[in-house]
Design goal:
The chain is built from no helices and nine strands. The protein has strands at about 1-5, 5-10, 15, 20-25, 30-40, 65-70, 75-80, 85-90, 100-105. The strands form two sheets. Strands 3-9-8-5-6 form a five-stranded mixed sheet, with no helix packed on it. Strands 2-1-4-7 form a four-stranded mixed sheet, with no helix packed on it.
């Protein structure tokens, strides 16, 4: 999957239940992150202005994520996901609302 200013393009929007591997490459010129929540956080408020809520963060408040992806860098995240609908996103202030998110289904 690729991200940059301000996009997040998935290679797939479906995954099988269980261990799912995300390799995220930052093709942009600024830092980004990669967070997964269950459901759709659109319209919620996060901890800082310009963020959405991470209340349904996969794995709880300290769940797995990629906290910093430098320009040109690729990082991998492996998570165990039960069936459901999820949102993957960059939740740095203004990035979600700028379009850096997508939903995907696990079945």
């Amino acid at each position: 999957m690729a991200e940059g200013e301000l996009f997040l393009h998935p290679s797939s929007t479906r995954a099988a239940t269980g261990s799912v591997t995300f390799t995220v490459t930052n093709h942009g010129t600024i830092h980004h992150e990669f967070v997964i929540v269950s459901g759709d956080p659109t319209g919620t408020k996060g901890e800082e202005p310009g963020q959405v809520s991470e209340e349904n963060h996969v794995g709880g408040a300290d769940g797995p994520e990629i906290g910093d992806i430098a320009p040109g860098q690729a990082k991998t995240l492996i998570v165990n996901l039960p069936p459901g609908t999820y949102t993957a996103m960059c939740n740095l202030p203004g990035h979600y609302t700028g379009g850096m998110h997508f939903t995907f289904a696990v079945s």
